[in-house]
Amino acid sequence: MRALINCSDVVPTPPAPASNAHFPAGLSRRDIEQACRATPFPTLPTDPGPVTTVAPVPPS
């Protein structure tokens, strides 16, 4: 593997996020399954309004 090429100069920088991180309405930190106790999950605001729903996906 001596012929590896560093392509980092041509990888574009992604655009900034359209908004700050947040929980959808009806969800909170209590809904997170913490994977690493050494690195606590950040405190995020929850969007106001009714609980966010997702339409069920019919079986294939």
From TrEMBL:
InterPro entries in UniProt: Haem_peroxidase_sf, Ligninase_C
Pfam family, one: Peroxidase_ext
Bias-annotated ranges (Low complexity): 49-60
Span list, region Disordered: 40-60
Gene source species: Trametes pubescens (White-rot fungus)
Example of a GO biological process term: response to oxidative stress
Keyword tags: Oxidoreductase, Peroxidase
GO molecular function, one term: peroxidase activity
Source domain of life: Eukaryota
Protein name: Manganese peroxidase 3
Span of domain Fungal ligninase C-terminal: 3-59
